[in-house]
Structures are given as C-alpha cells and as structure tokens.
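Posted in: Protein Modeling Q&A

I'm a second-year student putting together a small comparison for a lab meeting, and my supervisor asked me to include a predicted structure for ABC transporter permease. I've never done this before, so apologies if this is the wrong subforum. The sequence is pasted below exactly as I got it from our records. If anyone can share the structure token output, I'd also love a short note on what stands out.
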Amino acid sequence: MTTREAPVAAVAQVAPGTEPAAVQAISWRGRVHARRWEILRWLSPLAILILWQAGSAWGLIDPAILPAPQTIAEAGIELIGNGQLAEALRISGIRAAEGLFLGGVIGAALGALVGFSRWADATVDPTMQMIRALPHLGLIPLFILWFGIGELPKVLMVALGAAFPLYLNTSSAIRQVDPKLFETAAVLGFSPLQRLRTVVIPSAAPQVLVGLRQSLAIAWLTLIVAEQINADSGVGYLINNARDFLRIDVIIFGLVVYALLGIITDALVRILERRALRYRV
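Accepted answer (user: helix_wrangler)
Welcome! Here is the predicted structure, written out as tokens:
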C-alpha cells in the first residue's frame, strides 16, 4: 500500500463507525437550536404580559387607559359566561365567510381570466387596478347609501377587500407558469382541461394560496371597521357598545379576539398549503 492510499484506507475504516454518530450529533444540535428559538418566540410575548401585569399592579400603568391583562381576561370570561361572545363570533364568522367567498370567487375568476387572456389583460386589468387604488374602507359611506345599513354592505365591504389579493396573485401565478410545460403538454396531446389540472393548477397553487392568506387578513381587518358602523351584532358591535360604557377591558378583549381569529384562519390555510403542496417536498 502506498503512502497516498494509506490515509484513504484509514478514512474508509473509520468512517463507517463514526459517521452516523457525527451526523446524529449535528442533527441533535440542530434540533436543540431550532427548539431554543421556538421557545424564545413564546417567551417574548409572555414576558411582555408579565411586565404589563406588574406595571399595572405597581401603579405604573393607569387602568383607565390600559387595564391589566388580568382585568381583560376577566372581561373575556364574563362575555363567555353570558353567551355574548359565542353569538358575536357566530355572526362575525358568517359575515367574514360570506365576504371572503364572494370576493375570493370574483378575484380568482378575474385573475384567471386576465392570466390566460391578453385581451382581458388589456381591458379588465386597468379597471381593476383603478378600483384597487381606491381606499376601500373609505367607501363605507357610499355603500351605506347604496345598500342600506343591514348585512349586505358589511359583506360587500369584506368581499371588496378580499378580492384583490387573490386577483393579483392568481393572474401573476398563471402568467409565470413555465411555457415549456405548456409545450410538453401540447406534445403529449393534453386537452385544455388536462393542461389546467396537470400544469396550471400545480404551478399556480403556491402563489394563489399566498393570496388567500392575504385575503383572509384583509377580510378580518375590513370586518373590524364595518361591524362598528350601524351594527347591532357581532364582535365589532361588542367593541362599539363597550366604548359607550367606557369598558376599555372589553374593547381590548374584542381586539384580541379579532387577532386570534386572524391567526387561527391563517394557520388553517398554512396547513392546507402544506397538504396541497406536499408534492414539492
């Protein structure tokens, strides 16, 4: 054996016994490091709550301006106990779902039309961009004059806000599909429906789901404002009613509920995204 071959032979003899242990140690360190950051993400808001509660207990924070977390939690328990929160969540959930469905269908359909057709891109997209430039929350007085003060203007406001993220992401995703995939589908003799199912949808799905997450966030944001104008039910009504009685604890709890609803629905879409796009792993 030459001097050059000896180190190679030594590595070959040592590697089989030591490599798995080394890889396992590196993997273990990586998991510990990732878990450390995950724990820190939870500790950060918890530390803020503790400091907030301590500041309230020591009199550093005026309860008339910002009640203690314990007071807000007690207000939430009160609303849960008397059934007001459950009823408000049911009504707000229906409004958000109806608005998101209506806006999502319109936005995705127009986005697909613009993405597939140059004619639609030249005729539909300019109008959509002009409407998108308008502050949709500023249209609330006009919607009230047009549609009254019932459920319709609230649902339409949510739909208007939710439509544009899906419209933009759908049209952009379709335009960015690799042309070579269409050429391959044409060579294989795929029908238009097969091209849609096997080429367009898998390629566009990631960006469309991002648009859905954005639409959900805007839907809840719009609903917060819409429910505080001439509303007699819903989470926004609870907040508006609490303002009249100077219940800041109820107002903050209502805002926390909106935030939790946004986080939960976003998490559900992310789960759907992981399941729908598991082929990319």
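A couple of things worth pointing out for your meeting: The radius of gyration is 27 Å. The chain has two domains: 26-58, 69-277.
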